[in-house]
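PROTEIN DESIGN WORKSHEET
SECTION A - STRUCTURE
LENGTH: 284
TOKENS:
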């Protein structure tokens, strides 16, 4: 919201006609700064004390807003897994205090040499089981994003979800990341349809490739970031995606994540986001 040119998050949401947003929290339970797509912006949110959480909850109520999910940038490939687990647990404990019932988490991200996918699968399962056990009274769901290289592999995600088998464990279904990973477009559709019933949160994203690359396997991140596309111009047909989510009974948010914006002048970005939203609202 701030990166595309709005003075603050609330003003941007009001201008776009939105009532909910995803909120990043660091290890200190503050959204002081967030870095993505090579840019860093100050956010100013703070959940580190009960007083701060009460103030934010009151402010959200006054603004008529909700937080649809809290974003945590953990990494289950780190050596200090206790720190990663504790970060997610603390976030899950405070989320209900601001009316949020979903915490978006990462799979293993920075893969270490000599550790197999099977080992990382076991590590991820163990971490998530501990988090779910320690947060069982919160009612908060964990939404693990198909993110990075290992986290976009169909077999890995299926293994995590089937092994855990908890109603509180699901996916942050990023509609563009499977395509970014290198799956052909037809396979992307098959995977999204398969996981639609496991979605606890969404990122609506799109990419665009040359015609000869759309239905062939590619390397993860091939042509990135130039492959990033607006939601309305990319290759992925989100009408199909929304139908699969509907059929699966999905009633949660659709969170806009346009990663083409870095290619445009800052003066153009708000207009593009508004066009993305017009397009999505038309599909809805």
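SECTION B - SEQUENCE
RESIDUE ASSIGNMENT:
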């Amino acid at each position: 919201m701030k990166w595309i040119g709005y003075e603050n998050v609330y003003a941007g949401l009001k201008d776009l006609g939105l009532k909910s947003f995803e909120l990043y929290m660091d290890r200190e339970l503050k959204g002081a700064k967030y870095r993505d797509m090579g840019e860093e912006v100050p956010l100013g949110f703070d959940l580190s004390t009960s007083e701060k959480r009460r103030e934010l909850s009151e402010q959200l109520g006054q603004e008529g807003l909700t937080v649809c999910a809290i974003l945590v940038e953990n990494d289950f490939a780190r050596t200090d897994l206790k720190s990663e687990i504790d970060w997610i647990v603390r976030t899950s404990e405070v989320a209900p205090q601001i009316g949020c019932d979903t915490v978006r988490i990462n799979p293993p991200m920075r893969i270490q040499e000599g550790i197999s996918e099977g080992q990382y699968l076991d590590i991820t399962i163990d971490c998530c089981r501990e988090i779910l056990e320690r947060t069982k009274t919160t009612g908060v769901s964990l939404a693990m994003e198909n993110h990075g290289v290992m986290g976009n592999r169909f077999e890995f995600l299926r293994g995590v979800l089937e092994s855990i088998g908890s109603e509180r464990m699901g996916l942050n279904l990023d509609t563009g990341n499977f395509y970014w990973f290198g799956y052909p477009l037809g396979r992307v559709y098959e995977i999204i349809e398969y996981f639609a019933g496991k979605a606890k949160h969404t990122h609506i994203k799109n990419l665009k490739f040359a015609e000869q690359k759309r239905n062939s396997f590619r390397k993860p991140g091939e042509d990135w970031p130039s492959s990033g596309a607006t939601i309305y111009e990319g290759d992925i047909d989100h009408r199909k995606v929304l139908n699969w989510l509907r059929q699966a009974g999905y009633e949660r948010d659709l969170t806009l994540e346009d990663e083409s914006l870095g290619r445009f002048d800052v003066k153009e970005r708000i207009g593009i986001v508004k066009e993305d939203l017009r397009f999505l609202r038309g599909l809805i």
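SECTION C - NOTES
The first strand starts at residue 20 and ends at 24.
The CA atoms of residues 56 and 98 lie 7 Å apart.
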